[in-house]
Amino acid sequence: MQMDAVDQRIIALLIADARSSYAEIGAKVSLSAPAVKRRVDRLRADGVIKGFTAVIEPAAVGWTTEAFVELFCTGRTTPAQITVATRRHPEVVGAYTVSGQADALVHLRAADIGHLEQALERLRAEPFVTSTRSMVVLSRLVETPTAVPL
């Protein structure tokens, strides 16, 4: 799929505010609203745009505690096994394979320390997890949606 500078600008504008109308976006990229819609439809069909969503402030819905947890796994644990296991836990907001000593890094959000501890214990109970190392987040300094280089 080839994207030009206009496609990249449309994506950046949607990242900034997915509720923008095609006319508003068109005014910023010098295209008509129907032309923007055609481009967005193509970007969706090509899998560049996977969907549109609301970004929620976790504290506003009571999830004020978060941590990053390094998972250390048995020797033959696959990324697919980690994916399946972490999706079973509603507190998991991200899971990644990483370089270094840990096999994966898991981002957890919970209502409070007690809830975080329960989620961590359930994660530790996965059969392939041999140990974990946790870091509780004190404050979020920078958190941005996916950016596109312009």
UniProtKB/TrEMBL annotation:
Pfam families: AsnC_trans_reg, HTH_AsnC-type
The HTH asnC-type domain, residue ranges: 3-64
Family matches, as InterPro entries: AsnC-type_HTH_dom, Dimeric_a/b-barrel, Tscrpt_reg_AsnC-like, Tscrpt_reg_AsnC/Lrp_C, WH-like_DNA-bd_sf, WH_DNA-bd_sf
SUPFAM superfamilies linked to this entry: Dimeric alpha+beta barrel (SSF54909), Winged helix' DNA-binding domain (SSF46785)
Source domain of life: Bacteria
Keyword annotations: DNA-binding, Transcription, Transcription regulation
PROSITE patterns associated with the record: HTH_ASNC_2
Stated name of the protein: Lrp/AsnC family transcriptional regulator
